[in-house]
Design goal:
The complex is a heterodimer of chains A (about 400) and B (about 350). Helix content of chain A is about 60%, strand content about 10%. Chain A is an alpha/beta fold and about 400 residues long. In chain A, helix 8 packs antiparallel against helix 10 and helix 11 (about 275-300) runs antiparallel to helix 14 (about 345-355). In chain A, about 40% of the residues are buried. Chain B folds into two domains: about 20-135 and about 175-265, 3-Layer(aba) Sandwich (Rossmann fold), CATH 3.40.50; about 270-330, VP9 protein domain (Alpha-Beta Plaits), CATH 3.30.70. Chain B is built from twelve helices and 14 strands. Classes of the chains: A alpha/beta (about 400), B alpha/beta (about 350). Chain B: GO terms for molecular function: ATP binding; ATP hydrolysis activity.
Chain lengths: ~400, ~350
C-alpha cells in the first residue's frame, strides 16, 4: 500500500512572532486536560462550597445552648428562678438532672455535658436569711473557647435572676452586695491555657493529615508507575496487599505520635493525667483507622493527584467539625452528626479525656468503639473496591 | 491459508518441537471431545494453554473476538499482530488479569475463569512496560518476588538469579537506572524466579538492541528445552521465525496460526521483487492496478504481491518489458503474509 506524500504546508506555514499563539496553545491544552479530570473539577467546586457552608452555618465561636447537668439538693422557687435565668442567657441548656456528686462528676468527665450546676442544700433558706449562699458552676474547660463566653455571662445571672422574687431581703445595693454568689470552677484546665487544649488536638490533626496522605498514595502510585500490573499477576490477595501497605505506617504514625506527645509535655507542660499505655493503644487505633481510610481513597482515585485531593476533602471537615478548631457543642445538630462520623472527633475526646481529665477506658469506650468501627468499615470498602483485575 | 479468514481451525502446528512427553501433565482440562480426534494429543504431548471462543469488550469496542488457540507444553508460541490487535488483552485474559466476556479455557489445566489464583502461582507474566519497582535495587526486586511467591529462601534465589542473569555486578543498582536491555533481562529474571511452568511475555524485546535480543531468545529456547512453555508477543518478523509456532491476530481475530513455513506456504500469495527505476512512482502505479494486492518498498526494491497469481502476472506484464526494471519471482516473506492478512481482515471489517 502506498501512502499519499506528506504535505508539510497543509496547516499553513508557521507564522512569526507567535508569543500569544504559543501561550494560547498551552492554555487550550491545560483547559482540555482539566476538563478531563473530573475529581479536580469537583474539588474546585466543592471545597469553596464546603468551606462556605461550614464556616457560615456550622461554626460558632461563642457557642450557645451548651449541654448542662444540674444537681439540685434544694428544690425551691429561688432555685427554679435561678435556673430559668441560666436558660435565659441561652448559653446553658439543661439536658440532665443528676442525683449525686458522683454522677455529676461523671457527666462532666465523660464529655456528656459541658457544665454542671449544683445547688447546695438549704439554698433558699440561706438566701432568705441574707447569708449569700454560693452555687457551684463546674465547667469542662478543656476547650476554653467553648466555655469562656458562658462563664462571662454568669455575672448577669447573679445580678438579675431574683429581681422578681418576693419575700427576699432587699436587693443588692452598694453596701450589701449580691444576694447569692456563683462559684465558677473551670475543671481540667483552670487557667484556661489554650496549649492544653490545642496540643492533644494537634496530635489528632497531624496524625490524620500524614496518615491519610501516606496510604492515599500507595495504590495509585503502583497504578501510575505501572507496577500494579505485575503485582496483580502475582499470587497475592487484596487484603494481603492492604495490610502490607498499612502496617509499616502504623509504626511511623506511632513514632510521630510519640514525638508530639513528648514535645507537648516537655515544651508546653501538657499533663497526661490518665494512663499512658491507654493513650498509646487508642492512638494506634486512630492511626490504623486513618491509614485504612486513606487506603480506601487510594483504591477509588485514578491517580496520585486525585488521591491527595480526596484526602484533603476529607481532612477539611475533620478540622472544622471535629471540635478541634471550633467548639463542638456550638455547632447545629446536623453538623454535630457529621462530626460524630469523623474519627478525629472521637480521638479528640480520647486525647483530651486521657491527657487532661485522666479518663479511663470505661469513660471512653464509646469513642474507642467508634474508631474501631470506622477502621473496619474503611478496610471492608477498600478490599471490596480493590480490583484484582484490570477490567 | 486454507480457510479464508476469521478463525484458523486447522491445528497444523506442533510438529516443530520433538519434546518428549515425559514431563507431561495429565490435567488437560477443557472439553476433550474435539481435541481427542485431532491426533496431536495422541503422542502424549500435554497442553499448556487451551482456550475457546474468548471474547473481550471494552465498552462497545470488541477487542478480542471469538479467539481459540492451543499451545503445547515446551513450545515457544509467537503471538503476532499489529498494535491494538488484542494481543495484550488476550495475554491478560490468560493470566487472570482480565475476565473474558465470553469463552472458556484452561491455562496449565486451570480454568481461566475460576482458578486465576492457581494460574498466577504457576505463570510468569512479563508486562509490556517495565513493571518492577524502579526505586528498589535489582536484588531487592528479585527478593520481593521470591518472598511473594513464598520461596523457601528468597535471598538465595535472588542471588542465584543475579548470577544466572549476569547481573551480579548490578545487584545494588536501582532498577530504574538500568538501561532498556538490562531492565528487560531483570524483568525476565523476576518472571522465572518462582519457576513458573508457563511464561507469558508481552513484547519483551521492544526497544532492545539486537545483541540483547539474541541473548534473550537463546535464553527462551533454553527454558523451553527444560520444559517451560512460552507465549511471546512480538512485532519482529525475525523473532516470529524463532518460534516453534505462531499465531497472527488482527482486529481481535486470530487470522492464521502454525509453524512459520506452513503459514507462508498456506498464504497463497504470489510475490515478485522488482529492482531499479523510480520505485516510488512505480509503487504508486502498481498499487492501483487490478490483481496487485500489496506493494511494499524494501530499500531499492519493491515487493509486489497478489492473491491470484494469474491476475498479478497480467498486472505487472507491461512493466516487465521496461528494461530499467529487473523482475524476479520470489517467495513471500512472513511480513508480506501478515500485511496481506491485515488488509484482508480490514476489508472484512469495513
Amino acid at each position: 500500500m502506498t501512502e499519499p506524500p506528506v504535505r508539510p504546508d497543509e496547516g499553513g506555514r508557521p507564522r512569526r512572532g507567535g508569543f500569544f499563539r504559543r501561550v494560547w496553545a498551552m492554555l487550550i491544552k491545560e483547559g482540555l486536560q482539566l476538563s478531563r479530570d473530573r475529581i479536580t473539577f469537583a474539588t474546585m467546586i466543592f471545597i469553596p462550597l464546603m468551606q462556605l457552608v461550614l464556616f457560615g452555618y456550622a461554626i460558632n465561636t461563642t457557642p450557645r445552648h451548651l449541654p448542662t447537668a444540674i444537681l439540685i439538693q434544694d428544690d425551691s422557687d429561688a432555685t427554679r428562678a435561678i435556673l430559668a435565668a441560666f436558660s435565659n442567657t441561652a448559653y446553658f441548656k439543661i439536658i440532665k438532672q443528676v442525683r449525686s456528686e458522683k454522677d455529676f462528676d461523671f457527666a462532666i468527665a465523660s464529655g456528656e455535658v459541658q457544665f454542671g450546676i449544683e445547688f447546695p442544700a438549704d439554698f433558699e433558706r440561706a438566701l432568705r436569711r441574707g447569708d449569700k449562699p454560693a452555687l457551684l458552676v463546674a465547667a469542662d474547660a478543656t476547650d476554653p473557647v467553648a466555655t469562656g463566653s458562658a462563664i462571662a455571662a454568669l455575672n448577669g445571672i447573679v445580678a438579675n435572676a431574683l429581681v422578681h422574687e418576693r419575700g427576699l431581703p432587699p436587693r443588692d445595693d452598694a453596701e450589701s452586695g449580691p444576694l447569692f454568689e456563683i462559684r465558677a470552677h473551670a475543671r481540667y484546665n483552670p487557667a484556661a491555657v489554650s496549649q492544653l487544649n490545642i496540643v492533644p488536638g494537634l496530635l489528632g490533626i497531624i496524625l490524620t493529615m500524614t496518615m491519610l496522605i501516606f496510604t492515599a498514595l500507595s495504590v495509585t502510585r503502583e497504578r501510575e508507575r505501572g507496577t500494579m500490573e505485575s503485582l496483580l499477576a502475582m499470587p497475592i490477595r487484596p487484603v494481603e496487599i492492604m495490610l502490607g501497605k498499612i502496617l509499616p505506617y502504623v509504626l511511623i504514625g506511632f513514632i510521630q505520635g510519640a514525638i508530639i506527645i513528648g514535645a507537648g509535655t516537655l515544651l508546653f507542660g501538657v499533663p497526661i493525667l490518665g494512663s499512658l499505655p491507654l493513650l498509646a493503644a487508642l492512638t494506634t487505633l486512630f492511626i490504623a483507622t486513618n491509614l485504612a481510610i486513606g487506603y480506601t481513597f487510594s483504591t477509588v482515585a485514578q491517580n496520585q493527584l486525585q488521591a491527595i485531593q480526596m484526602a484533603f476533602m476529607f481532612f477539611l471537615p475533620n478540622i472544622l467539625l471535629s471540635g478541634f478548631a471550633f467548639p463542638f457543642a456550638g455547632m447545629p445538630r446536623w453538623a454535630q452528626w457529621i462530626g460524630e462520623a469523623l474519627p478525629l472527633t472521637h480521638f479528640l475526646r480520647i486525647t483530651r479525656g486521657i491527657m487532661l481529665k485522666g479518663s479511663d477506658l470505661a469513660t471512653l469506650q464509646g469513642d474507642a468503639l467508634a474508631l474501631a468501627v470506622a477502621m473496619f468499615v474503611a478496610m471492608g470498602v477498600a478490599v471490596a473496591r480493590f480490583r484484582q483485575t484490570l477490567d | 491459508m486454507s480457510d479464508s479468514g476469521s478463525r484458523a481451525v486447522s491445528d497444523s502446528g506442533s510438529r516443530a518441537v520433538s519434546d518428549s512427553g515425559s514431563r507431561a501433565v495429565s490435567d488437560v482440562g477443557g472439553d476433550g471431545r474435539e481435541r481427542a480426534g485431532e491426533g496431536e494429543t495422541g503422542n502424549g504431548r500435554a497442553i499448556a494453554i487451551d482456550v475457546n471462543g474468548l471474547t473481550k469488550r471494552f465498552g462497545e469496542r470488541v477487542v478480542v473476538r471469538d479467539l481459540s488457540m492451543r499451545v503445547y507444553r515446551g513450545q515457544i508460541y509467537g503471538f503476532l499482530g499489529p498494535n491494538g490487535s488484542g494481543k495484550t488483552t488476550t495475554i491478560r485474559m490468560l493470566c487472570g488479569l482480565l475476565t473474558p466476556d465470553a469463552g472458556t479455557g484452561t491455562c496449565l489445566g486451570y480454568n481461566i475463569l475460576t482458578e486465576a489464583a492457581e494460574i498466577k502461582r504457576h505463570v510468569g507474566y512479563m508486562t509490556q512496560r517495565f513493571s518492577l519497582y524502579e526505586d528498589l535495587s535489582v536484588r531487592e526486586n528479585l527478593e520481593f518476588v521470591g518472598r511473594l511467591y513464598g520461596l523457601a529462601n528468597p535471598r538465595r534465589a535472588a542471588q542465584a538469579a543475579l548470577v544466572r542473569l549476569g547481573l551480579e555486578g548490578r545487584g545494588h543498582q536501582l532498577a530504574g537506572t538500568l538501561s532498556g536491555g538490562w531492565k528487560q533481562r531483570l524483568a525476565l529474571g523476576a518472571c522465572i524466579l518462582p519457576e513458573p511452568r508457563l511464561l507469558l511475555l508481552d513484547e519483551p524485546t521492544a526497544g532492545v538492541d539486537p545483541k540483547a535480543r539474541r541473548d534473550f531468545w537463546s535464553q527462551i529456547h533454553q527454558l523451553a528445552s527444560e520444559g517451560m512453555t512460552v507465549l511471546v508477543s512480538t512485532h519482529y518478523m525475525d523473532e516470529a521465525e524463532r518460534c516453534h509456532e505462531i499465531a497472527y491476530i488482527a482486529y481481535g481475530e486470530l487470522l492464521t496460526r502454525g509453524p512459520v513455513k506452513d503459514v507462508i506456504r498456506n498464504s497463497g500469495l504470489a510475490t515478485w521483487t522488482v529492482t531499479g527505476g523510480d520505485t516510488w512512482r512505480l509503487a504508486e502505479e502498481l498499487s492501483s492496478r487490478e490483481g496487485v494486492d500489496m506493494v511494499a518498498p524494501f530499500g531499492a526494491s519493491l515487493h509486489v504481491a497478489g492473491r491470484d497469481k494469474a491476475k498479478l502476472d497480467a498486472a505487472i506484464a507491461p512493466y516487465r518489458r521496461d528494461p530499467a526494471l529487473s523482475w524476479q519471482e520470489d517467495q513471500p516473506t512472513l511480513e508480506d503474509v501478515f500485511i496481506d492478512l491485515m488488509n484482508r481482515s480490514k476489508d472484512n471489517f469495513q
